[in-house]
Amino acid sequence: MPNPPGKPPSTPGSASVERGKALELAVLEIERCILKQSPGMDGATFVIEPNRTVTENGVRHEIDVFVEVAMANGYKAVFIFECKNRQVAVSKNDVIVFSEKIRAVSAATGFFVAKRFGNPARAQAEQDQRITLLEVTETSHPNIQVLPHFHYQFRKDVKSAVRLIRRGAPEDAPVNPLDAQKTCQVYGKEIILGEFAQRLVTQAMESRERDWNTTFLHGSYERTAELTERFDSGQLIVDDVDIGCIEIQTAYTAIVSQPRIVSYFDVKTRGRAVTIDFPLVPAEGAIGLFLAAPHAMESASETDLPPATE
């Protein structure tokens, strides 16, 4: 498959590194979850880090996952993890090198995580009681559901008209465009008008979707939403004008889809980790702000307004 524009071509070496990092991340998250759920453990009593480098007597050791747990009265225990995401079986020499890492950091236990261990590697591991071998299985394209009907939803191409009606103005009062960067007073607090309008637009869409069952949906759906928000006297002031009501009409596209599963690892006796890929969520579109008030200013119809303000 060709690489996306601007992305350097993949090489066997870089692919191997990416596979290794994927397993390291899975192990990191599994162990973090175990520590957080263990009685008495919290963020103040353990440290877990990926890719820690330790130098002893000029010899550099790279630790894939480093864990330090505070026990009691200043006692600390160190645990390290070595991760090999490859089809080739772990060798005796791999275990010997890992044993030296355990010694260098004074780890209580070292966990070697890999898909396969050769018989010489298993025999070598038995020589060091601090080593625990953990087999991991990886499913590249698992035919599973992470959670039943697990999916993501976001909105794009949002186009909204927000109509501010001056207190006492008739509903069919002429409209005039407003500057979205203006400062307004909302319940006695200053806020940028465009930001306040965006909140109401989002509120309108969320209200519209509250009872929308997307469990079995997949694809793009054209949606509309409306909202009318009324204010008591003095609650919303724009350009020294007391606003009695805001009317919102918005149209947008809702995207509903299942996320792509990037990796799925099952580390024997420890846990499973699933990495999923969510798309970049685009901005929620543009908003047109209009003031409806009974004054003699030249008015414009909503269809003749200038492009909406982002």
Topology:
Blueprint: H1 12-37, E1 46-56, E2 59-70, E3 76-84, H2 92-105, E4 109-114, H3 119-125, E5 131-138, E6 152-166, E7 175-177, E8 183-186, E9 189-192, H4 193-209, E10 219-230, E11 236-238, E12 241-257, E13 260-267, E14 271-277, E15 286-292
Parallel strand pairs: 3-4, 4-5, 6-15
Antiparallel strand pairs: 1-2, 2-3, 5-13, 6-12, 7-15, 8-9, 8-11, 10-12, 11-12, 13-14
Helix pairs in contact: 2-3
Describe this structure in words.
The chain is α+β, with helices and mostly antiparallel strands and 310 residues long. It has two domains: 12-138, Trna Endonuclease, Chain: A, domain 1, CATH 3.40.1350.10; 152-259 and 277-304, no CATH class. The chain is 21% helix and 41% strand. The protein has helices at residues 12-37, 92-105, 119-125, 193-209; strands at 46-56, 59-70, 76-84, 109-114, 131-138, 152-166, 175-177, 183-186, 189-192, 219-230, 236-238, 241-257, 260-267, 271-277, 286-292. The strands form two sheets. Strands 6, 7, 8, 9, 10, 11, 12 and 15 form an eight-stranded mixed sheet that branches. It is elongated and about 90 Å long. It starts with 11 loop residues before the first helix and ends in an 18-residue tail after the last strand.
